[in-house]
Amino acid sequence: MTKVIVGIAGASGAIYGWRLLERLRAQDAEIHLILTRSGEKTLYIEMGKTAAEARELAHYSYPLEDIGARIASGSSRMDAMIVAPCSIHTMSAIAQGISSNLLIRAADVMLKERRKLVLMVRESPFHTGHLRNMTLLAEMGAIIAPPVPGFYNHPQTVMDIVDHSVDRVLDLIGLSDPRVRRWEGTSR
Questions:
Q1: What single-letter DSSP state applies at residue 61?
Q2: Host H or E run for residue 137
Q3: Is pTM, for the whole model, over 0.90?
Q4: Total of domains in the chain
Q5: Residue 22 placed within a domain
Q6: Domain annotation covers residue 186
Q7: pLDDT tens-place string over residues 131-172
Q8: The domain spanning residue 129 has which CATH number?
Q9: Distance CA 65, CA 19 (A)
Q10: Domain ranges, residue 164
């Protein structure tokens, strides 16, 4: 079973974190959840979902302050971590190694252990400082995967657009869904 840490930070786009939890649950991944306070608030404002409801989708949930949690150690053998959505604040703290809470510490562990760390950065536009932090993270091995929709699959609903980005992230951690519509090219 693939062990995945899901971090939900406070950027707009809580639906990405929620949908990721649903899709990971459907794939029988072992889910370890960390919610920031801003992530909890945004989840409620944007979706009417509570932190308790998000925790029900996870197998394990950790308080943000629990720096002693097992996922704060490289010996825990997590396979991947996805922060969805990832705020600029969280991304910048990860880039600079400021492990002031469990989400940032868990991401730091993923980097130091050379494991998959995917950040669905949800801000726009970016200034040079944001881009430099993204470059630092990419150089350290993180994958920067902003939720940027594709339209070749002719989405009909907001959830189609959300799923496109979530599908791409699941591909990145090796949990591809065989039902995903993929680009087949223009020639037939």
A1: E
A2: helix 128-140
A3: yes
A4: 1
A5: yes
A6: no
A7: 999 999 999 999 999 999 989 889 999 999 999 999 999 999
A8: 3.40.50.1950
A9: 25
A10: 12-172
